[in-house]
Design brief:
heterodimer; A: mainly beta; six-stranded mixed sheet; five-stranded antiparallel sheet; 11 strands; 0% helix; B: mainly beta; seven-stranded mixed sheet; four-stranded antiparallel sheet
C-alpha cells in the first residue's frame, strides 16, 4: 500500500525557472516530511524537511510547502540550476511514536532535468 | 569526514546463494537503517538499529533476510537462499539519535541470476 505518492515521474525545466515537485500522502498520522535528492550511483542526500506544525520551510533556493488538510506537500526550487538535475524523493514518517521513529516511507521519486 | 560506506558496491549471486552486505555508518551515529530500493521505486524500510539493538525489523520481507549490528557500529544484512525478486539496491543510512536526517551510503546493487 503506497502511502506516499509522487505522481510525476519526470519534470523538465529551463535553467533559471522554477521547479515544482509534488507529493501526496494518505496516512494522517504522518507528521514529519523530508525531501531527498539522488544522483546516479550515489545514495540519497538530505535536502530539506518540514514538521507538521509548520506549513512552510525555506532553505536558500529550496522551499517546502505543507498542506495538511489536502495531505499534500511540494518542493519549490528557484532558480533551477543544471546541478539540480537529479531524482527527488519525498519521504514521510509519524514521529509521534517511537515505533515509527526514523521509519520513513518514500515516494517513487521524480526525475528532474534542468536544461540550459 | 567519512560518510556511510557500503560494500560490495555490486554483487551478482546465483539463485539460492547466500549473500552478506556490509554497512559502515558514520562514526558516532547511533541509529542505523537498511532500505531496499527496487528499480524505479523509492527506498523501502527494512530494519532499524539503535546501537546494537534491532528495534524494528518489520520491513524484512521474509525470514531469509537477517540483519545484525553486534558491536553497535558496522552492520551486516544477510540474505539466505537468494531469489530473483531480491534483486534491488540495498541502502544503508545512519543518523544521530533523535535526528530525522539520515545519511545514506551509495548502496549495494544486488543482482540475482
Amino acid at each position: 500500500d503506497q502511502q506516499v505518492k509522487q505522481n510525476s515521474p519526470s519534470l523538465s525545466v529551463q535553467e533559471g525557472r522554477i521547479s515544482i515537485l509534488n507529493c501526496d500522502y494518505t496516512n494522517s498520522m504522518f507528521d514529519y516530511f523530508l525531501w531527498y535528492k539522488k544522483y546516479p550511483a550515489e545514495g540519497p542526500t538530505f535536502l530539506i524537511s518540514i514538521s507538521s506544525i509548520k506549513d512552510k520551510n525555506e532553505d536558500g533556493r529550496f522551499t517546502v510547502f505543507l498542506n495538511k488538510s489536502a495531505k499534500h506537500l511540494s518542493l519549490h526550487i528557484v532558480p533551477s540550476q543544471p546541478g539540480d538535475s537529479a531524482v527527488y524523493f519525498c519521504a514521510a514518517s509519524g514521529e509521534g511514536s517511537t515505533d515509527s521513529w526514523g521509519k520513513f516511507q518514500f515516494g517513487a521519486g521524480t526525475q528532474v532535468v534542468v536544461t540550459p | 569526514g567519512a560518510g556511510v560506506s557500503q560494500s560490495p558496491r555490486y554483487k551478482v549471486a546465483k539463485r539460492g546463494q547466500d549473500v552478506a552486505l556490509r554497512c559502515d555508518p558514520i562514526s558516532g551515529h547511533v541509529s542505523l537503517f537498511w532500505y531496499q530500493q527496487a528499480l524505479g521505486q523509492g527506498p523501502e524500510f527494512l530494519t532499524y538499529f539503535q546501537n546494537e539493538a534491532q528495534l524494528d525489523k518489520s520491513g524484512l520481507p521474509s525470514d531469509r533476510f537477517f540483519a545484525e549490528r553486534p558491536e553497535g557500529s558496522v552492520s551486516t544484512l544477510k540474505i539466505q537462499r537468494t531469489q530473483q525478486e531480491d534483486s534491488a539496491v540495498y541502502l544503508c543510512a545512519s543518523s544521530l539519535v533523535g535526528s530525522h536526517e539520515q545519511y545514506f551510503g551509495p548502496g549495494t546493487r544486488l543482482t540475482v541470476t
